[in-house]
Amino acid sequence: MTGAGGAAAGLDGFARAWAAAVVGTSYVSMSRAEVEARLRGFADRLAGALAAEPFTGTPGYRVGADLVTLGFAAPESLARTVTVVNARLLGDLAAEATAAPDRLRPGAAAAQIPAGKNGGKIPGSGAPGGRASSGKAEVLGAGQRLERLLQALVTGAARAMRDRTLTEQEAIRRAAFAARRDAERRLRESEARLRHAALHDRLTGLPNRAMFTHRLERAIAAARPGGRLGVCLIGLDGFTAVNDSLGYRVGDRLLLAVAHRLAAVAADAGHLFARLHGDEFAVLVQRTACTDDAVKVADAVLSALAAPVAVGDHRLPVAASIGVVERPTAGADATDTMRAADITLRWAKADGGGRWTLFDPERSARDVARYQLSAELPGALDRDEFVLDYQPLVDLGDGAPRGVEALARWRHPRLGTLSPASFIELAEDTGLIVPLGLRLLHRACRQAVRWHRAAARPPFVSVNLAVRQLRHPGLVADVAEVLDRTGLAPHRLQLELTESAVVGTADGAVATLHGLADLGVRLAIDDFGTGYANLAYLRHLPVHALKLDRAFTAGLGGGPAADPADETLLEILVKLGHALHLEVTAEGIETSAQASRIAALGCDLGQGWHFGRPTRPGTITRRLTA
């Protein structure tokens, strides 16, 4: 084959066949033409190796390695390469030599290589792919040269594949190590952010309650024998009004400004400062010597907040209440310390705000006892532990009982009999005063009916009403039902209300008073003279009686407590009551001298230990029937 046709069948055709065999077996970032061009260069190198003197397989080794470097690293690529080279290289090389002998290197004997394994004799060498006999060059035929060239090509490709695999594995290992190191770094950063978020307030960036409590626990645990510490719990007064009137954005800016001021106070003294929640902040004063060390911090806080805070166009006055706890660390507990600070802060606010208050264990114990009683109220009502004692209201003219006041008692299974001062306010706070009052009213009316049947001159029964009962919308209907169920005549029931509950009441309460008066029930103002004493308002209410507070009777009848002014005031109040056509009762009469003097002033009824202490219904019954 000669000319163009021979050339087409030569190494160019071999390169095309080689490309056709390997394209698609591996991913390479080249076009088909680019692959053919690169393989054409490989073909020249293989052809040169076959014709080289002396023969060496090294070019085949390098072609195999370069083939893998080119991207044909799959086992299928190598297998097809071996097939194509074995099947076509010698034939296409001969065609190339015939068509264009000048394309081979000068002196090459490729065109003279006869076909077949035992053809022309060409000296071999000891290079890869060739074998050397001892002392003499081995004469190899074309087929042997091709075989050894292929062996070298496969070896070069295999080692290149191995090296490539090792390199990729190392790269993967390094990448995995780098990824793990980066992931660990990001995890540490994430944990640090989460830890910071968990221990700091989002708005101010200050330590939060969790961190403050943790530091307090550490301070208690690390304190030396005899050590002390203090906590100042700070609550802004009236902060809710800022949010409600100016909005939460202004409120947040106010909190930031306050936090900045207080943080400066704490930082100057080296104390831990934290925002617990809302408008509450706290200062941990470590290693105090005495209570004054914590009080000084509280005074510094109040001074720092003395000036108004500028927020935008607003100049906002700021006041704070502070609960101060200073105590030994021995036996202390972080939770108990914070609870004490919280209680003391509530005391400071209840005392008017704008001040600090020091924790008082005795006051706290009383509060705890009140809370326990409050929690026991519902069960006590279910178990019917509330009873009534009765105290007579005596006519100061003839000494005969005209009425009896029903006084609530709690027969506590553990604490004994408790007076109304121990539980009535708690019952009001919890709302239990309404069902409790209704039950006691029913019991008093039922007892009054028994006295009506037993006595020639039966007394009226006087029952106290709490403020919350008066404001209960169903009070009139409840009283009417009790009267109907017990059969007590309405005029034999007197309801006592405190002066502060009656004077200045809302329209609904005034309507309730008129509704009770329309039933025929008597209404009395208890403890008159110690409250608001709005006489202009009082004369328009359907009131039937006044009960003068015991404070006016204490100064009568001689003795160390005697005060002439009390007699004058008492006389004025009696005349005032009579001028309003009201029956007047004096409370707290304890001596016969007091009873005589009050009777001389024209008072209608008297009540006190002189006439009888609160007692059980049977005692009253015996007195009425004597």
Structure description:
The chain has helices spanning 3-9, 11-22, 32-51, 58-70, 75-99, 142-199, 209-222, 239-246, 248-269, 291-304, 334-350, 361-382, 420-430, 433-454, 467-470, 475-486, 499-502, 507-519, 535-538, 564-579, 592-600, 617-625; strands at residues 122-123, 139-140, 228-236, 272-277, 280-286, 309-311, 314-316, 320-328, 356-358, 386-395, 401-412, 416-418, 460-464, 493-498, 522-528, 545-548, 583-586, 605-606. With 626 residues, the chain is α/β, with parallel strands linked by helices. The protein folds into 3 domains: 3-166; 209-359, Reverse transcriptase/Diguanylate cyclase domain (Alpha-Beta Plaits), CATH 3.30.70.270; 393-625, EAL domain (TIM Barrel). The strands form 4 sheets. An 8-stranded mixed β-barrel has the order 10-11-13-14-15-16-17-18, surrounded by 5 helices. A 5-stranded mixed beta sheet has the order 4-5-3-8-9, with helices on both faces. Strand 8 (320-328), helix 11 (334-350) and strand 9 (356-358) form a beta-alpha-beta unit. Helix 2 (11-22) crosses helix 3.
